[in-house]
Fold this protein.
Amino acid sequence: MRINIPSSILDLKGQCVNTINYKQTTNTLTIYCRRDKRYKPIDPLHKKPGRINRYLRRTIYDVPLLNTRVQIEIELVQMRTKLNRRCIELCKFVGAGCYYRKRFCYLVSGLCRYMSISAVSKHFDLRWETVKNMDKKYLQETLPALNPAELVNLKYLGVDEVARAKGQDYMTVVYDLESGNLILVHEGRTAETLSICLKQLPESTKKGILAVAMDMGPAYQKAIHDDLPHADIIFDRFHVMQNYSRAVDNQRCIEFRKAVKIGKDLIKGSRFLLLRNAENLTEAQGDKLKKLLQENTNINIIYMLKEQKNHGRYWVR
């Protein structure tokens, strides 16, 4: 049976299709090509035509067609440059040293925006590292790094620390809270690290920053006070509520030690009730919590403060 496939679908510039073979046992469609010698080989470094050394064959993988795996066997030129170095010619539809078409890599990276890398790798039957490298390569091409010296109109910044690897290997990241763009990344999590990042911003930009959100670590606070003295410091809700929960639990322990037997029976087993959101408690758990708060004023006060912060907005200077 003769198969006619429009050239716009294959989009194999510089290649001529010889034969197409379908292997049912592996559900694989293989397209065999030879190089179109009407096109001169282009040096990938200097973008100029070069001398042909020899022809090489490479098998690459394309976007699946109707749930069928597609592989293309292409013919490429190994060139000799002016410096007498050997290299593979520039190919527009596949990257240097890559065995997957660019459009396949873009498809994989696009799915990574909505699915986990593990799910995408299982869907295409690819290794996890392969999918990660495809996504990384695409993001590097489409999301170029920002130049801090050219940034303007920044109002609200976020500062956080991320672990680059297990252990004590941390990095400081600074991002724009309005656009979500990553602005600066630097090794370490000290005040000096954040100061190095902020000093890269123009003075006019730094004066326009109104607030910086961060955790409650003193190092980052010091850097903001030194480099952005006019900006408000906002502690993120997670760390504030973590401290309140710790304070509630400490007060529960203090009251338990002070209480007599009847009071201890009431406080015993209440840690879960005090730390969990009230709307997630059952009716029986809510009744027990209500009775505890009525009987113990100290626990009631600190619990109310925690709930107010949990459901409100607040700025901390």
